[in-house]
Structure formats: structure tokens, C-alpha cells
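Quarterly update, task 2.4: S-adenosylmethionine-bound model.
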Amino acid sequence: MKLSNKTLMPRRGKTWLGQMFFSIMSHSLYDVGLYRFVTPYIWRCPTSRLMDNYVENISAHHLEIGVGSGYFLKRTMCADFVKRLVLADMNLNCLRKSAKRLRMSTPRICHHNILQPFSPLPLERAKFSSVAMNYVLHCIPGTLSGNQHVFQHVHDLLREGGVFFGATLIQQPVHQGIASWLFMKLLNAVGIFQNGQHTSAELQQALASRFRKVEISMVGNAAVFRAVK
Ligand SMILES: C[S@@+](CC[C@H](N)C(=O)[O-])C[C@H]1O[C@@H](n2cnc3c(N)ncnc32)[C@H](O)[C@@H]1O
């Protein structure tokens, strides 16, 4: 079957708008804007904190869900170290560009919507030692507790002792930062973010009900998480 973005992307609505945004953004511009400016100054989370999460948890058998431009993998994954790298995303443009950027690690790509189970897709049978989902959960429609199946899909793909890690943005009260509050409202209004109802307590609950060890640190608006199966 020949895949196109239309295969997985809804034709209209907020999710479609969000996906259009990821497609049309120039990836180098996206990286500079998001990680040199928006993350440290609007979300008040140093980009180095997100980078450390990768350095500490990435393994040689890694699945990246919602790869975007591949920014963190490019900086933290050494081609000699990686044995198996799979990039999954519902946006084909992101998959093509990140796979090209990470070609030294010979990634396999998987055109997939995380709201659906991975099982019918051609992922290898062997489970992964690490799965990352960085800055993805806040783009997915619905509440975190209403999307429990997403956490279950990740759990199913990890071997015992494997680590699920990443970060997601959570709306904070207006008094904790007017700029982040306004920016979050705007991104939700246009459909790039869909996290209006998300809380760190919900994230904790969704992870703790499946994983045996869960760590979540709130750094500005970012809930930086790590969960061990
Ligand atoms: C904000 S970008 C984050 C990219 C990267 N992980 C990072 O930290 O820079 C969100 C990514 O998740 C993907 N995405 C959003 N919703 C998705 C879904 N339901 N299934 C799979 N990928 C999704 C988007 O296409 C985009 O590549």
C-alpha cells in the first residue's frame, strides 16, 4: 500500500490543523524557535533538562514516537551505539526528514497514529528497551486519563525493565507566567496543542497504573517523566 499523509491524518478539524503546522514548519526553524527560545523562555524549562532525559534513558533498542525533526535523537544518539532505531509518527514529512537526518543510525520508519495499537504494523517482534514520547502528549486530543490506551500501547512495546520517557506541556495558572498562559491558550485555540484539560496528577495516575517506577518533575510548564516497566 502506498502511504500518504492522508492515510492517517484527518482531513479537517483541530488535529488536521496541528499536523499541517508540523508539515509546513521548516525543521531547522522549528528547532531554533522551539528549543532556543520557546522552551527556555516561554515554557521555562531549560532545553538541557529535556536533553538530559534522553542521555540518561535512551538505549540501543529505541522507539521514538512523534519524532518531529529528530532534534534530540540527533544530539544524543551515537550511530555506533544504536542497534535498532524505529521512528514512528503520523506525519510523513516528519518521518522522511528525520530519517534522512538520522541516516547514520539506519532507522526504520513507521507511519502510525499513536491513538491506534501498533500490533498490526510491521514493527519487529522483539520489544524495545526504551520508548520516548517527547512533546507529543499535549498534541493528542482528549484528556490523559481518556487516552489510557496510548500508555498501554507503549507498555506493550517495552521489554521488562525498559524505560518510557519524555516530556509533555501542562497549562499552569496564569499567575505562574502570563506569557506561557497566553501562548498555551493560543496554541489550543488553533489546534496545535490539545492539552486544555491535562494535569500532572492525571499523568502520574496513567503511568503509575502500568509502570512499576514513575518519576515526574515539573519544570516550568513541562512535566518531564520517566517510567520503568
Ligand atoms: C511537537 S512535535 C515533537 C517532536 C519531537 N518529539 C521533539 O521533542 O522535538 C510533535 C510530533 O508528534 C507527532 N504526532 C502528533 N500526534 C500524533 C499521533 N496521534 N500519533 C503519532 N504522532 C503524532 C507530530 O506529527 C510531531 O512530529
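Highlight for this quarter: The longest strand covers residues 158-169.
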